[in-house]
Design a protein that fits this description.
Radius of gyration: 11 Å
Helix content: under 10%
Mean pLDDT: 96
Number of domains: 1
Distance between the termini: 25 Å
Low-confidence stretches: none
CATH class: Mainly Beta
CATH architecture: Beta Barrel
Number of strands: 6
Order of helices and strands: EEEEEE
Length: about 80
């Protein structure tokens, strides 16, 4: 398992039944991420994402300690 820091580019609130956020990796790749519970991340803030291979598992807001399980992640073209 690995953890990487991502910058919050945009928040969308609830998308159907999951929260949705757009994040950017240090490599400049961008990803849409859907997760189960509100983490209270702000634009420009860093969040921590834990993954194993292509399986993204959790998103963590280090400023308030909130964490949620990731249900889907898609790279933005």
């Amino acid at each position: 398992m690995a953890t990487e820091s991502f910058k919050v580019i945009q928040t969308f609130g609830i998308d159907y039944t999951k929260y949705k956020i757009l994040v950017q990796a240090k490599s400049s790749n961008r990803y849409f991420v859907w997760y189960e519970e509100q983490i209270g991340a702000d634009l420009g803030q860093e969040v921590l994402i834990t993954y194993e291979g292509n399986n993204w598992q959790t998103i963590n807001n280090p400023l308030n300690g909130r964490r949620a399980r990731i249900t889907q992640a898609e790279k933005v073209n």
